Amino acid sequence: MNRVLLSGLFASSLFLSATALVQASGVPVGPVKPDAQAGATLYNEGDPSRGIVACITCHGPGGNSELSVNPNLAAQPHEYTYKQLVEFQPREDGAAPRRGADGAPSIMTSLATPLTIQDMLNLSLYLAEQPLTAPAAASNEDLVARGEEIWRGGIRERNVPACAACHGANGEGIPSQYPRLSGQFASYLEDQLILFRAGHRGNSEMMIQIAARMSDADIKAVSDYAAGLR
Ligand code: HEC
Ligand code: HEC
Question: What is the pLDDT of residues 22-35, one digit of tens each?
Fold first, then answer.
């Protein structure tokens, strides 16, 4: 098989099932069954022998983070979380599809690199089963009206669709592709929209197109509103 065909297969495998990813990366093919209990252990304890840092250090108990720089991970569709972990890992050319500020590697890139496909499936299932116990809140009353308008109706004159259409009326997310945004930290949501707009978070053509048509003020308002949704 030639290189072009192989790299095409690799790119498209992102959108297929975990089994397909196993095939594309050359690991022996077989049914991959997620194990939430193994995910919990790895999340809470890491695995020093393989250089895996305990996720709980930053993302808090059961994916409920205490610091807004580290996103909440609880109650997210497991397919979404799995996709993110895969896309934090560098590709053959050295760059990861999901990068951080100025296109530099995200802090998650070095943390996700030692994870196997089985680890990522286990962690994602464990996190999806955890309740969001301490959701973030909206903090800026002046932005609520504008945020709600964008959330429910989009920005018609700039062809921005309503966020609710894909992320759910209450921001709860729609399995499997669309993440929950409700209760997520406003500053994290704002950062991600800015990263999409710049193309540094290059792992969703959909969100890159949407963020490209939003101003800083739009992004701030809708991020604050989404954080407060329940
Ligand atoms: C040193 C702190 C730290 C540790 C340890 C850490 N993370 Fe993260 N994580 C972050 C930060 C900061 C971000 C935001 C990254 C960005 O915006 O590029 C993040 C983002 C994520 C995201 C994306 C969330 C979303 O809504 O898209 C996932 C998934 C994730 N981490 C999972 C994990 C898992 C699983 C582990 C353990 C193997 C882990 N993290 C360990 C700090 C950490
Ligand atoms: C057509 C469907 C669609 C619409 C409409 C949409 N989104 Fe998204 N959004 C997605 C998808 C799909 C993802 C997951 C991208 C990925 O896989 O990384 C996402 C991811 C996000 C993220 C990253 C979440 C995280 O945990 O890192 C934010 C923030 C976001 N969207 C905000 C918005 C806002 C605000 C609006 C409205 C202006 C909006 N989205 C409208 C499909 C959509």
Answer: 545 545 456 779 99
